[in-house]
Amino acid sequence: MPRSFEGDHNAEGLRVAVIACRFNDEIVDGLLRGALDCLSRHGAADDAVSLYRVPGAFEIPTLAAKLIDLGGIDAIVTLGCLLRGDTPHFDFISAQVTNDLSRVATEAKFPVAFGVITCNTLEQAVERSSAGSGNKGWEAALAAIEMANLWRALRSEGT
Predict the structure, then answer these.
(1) What is the reported pLDDT for 78?
(2) pTM (2 d.p.)
(3) Residue 139: which CATH number?
(4) Residue 41 falls inside a structural domain
């Protein structure tokens, strides 16, 4: 049987940074509530979770990179909402934020969970940020917990 590695969903002892943008705040607030609820329900201590607010989604990757450089955290949860409009701005920002967050996580070899939703309509955004099943903030926080624990398992095995 091959050796298997995976992270669990126990957030006890994890230090998590949550980066949430203020643009489309009524939607991001729902994502944030979902993420914080997930972290709490899975055992993260209140003082082990730090919340950082940025103006918009474009600023998230830069702060994520800085927080990784500063150290002291096990994972980052990123939260934002981009709504399609009448101009190509949505396409540019969506692609840039996605690519930059992927690059930050890959280059730093660090768990960065992607909770920046990209929606065609306000209704889609409300659905993805409402309380209950399907909240993308909750899902991003759960992914961050799992990946942080996987990183710990890898470090403890020396792989």
Answers:
(1) 98
(2) 0.94
(3) 3.40.50.960
(4) yes
Number of domains forming the structure of the chain: 1
Helix 89-108, helix 60-70: angle, nearest 10: 10
The separation between the first and the last C-alpha atoms of the chain, rounded to the nearest angstrom, is 18
What confidence score (pLDDT) does residue 115 get?
A: 98
Under 8 Å between Cβ of 116 and 78: yes
Which positions are annotated as active-site residues? 89
Cβ contact 124:83 at 8 Å: no
Selection from 43, 115, 48, 34 nearest residue 82 by Cα: 115
Query: What residues are paired with 50 via a beta bridge?
Result: 17
Torsion of CA 99, 90, 118, 68, to 10 degrees: 40
Residue 26 lies in a domain: yes
User: Is residue 117 assigned to a domain?
Assistant: yes
Asked, for residue 158, whether it belongs to a domain, the answer is no
Q: Are 22 and 28 in contact (CB under 8 A)?
A: yes
Average the pLDDT over 40-50 and give the result: 97
* Containing structural domain, residue 90: 16-149
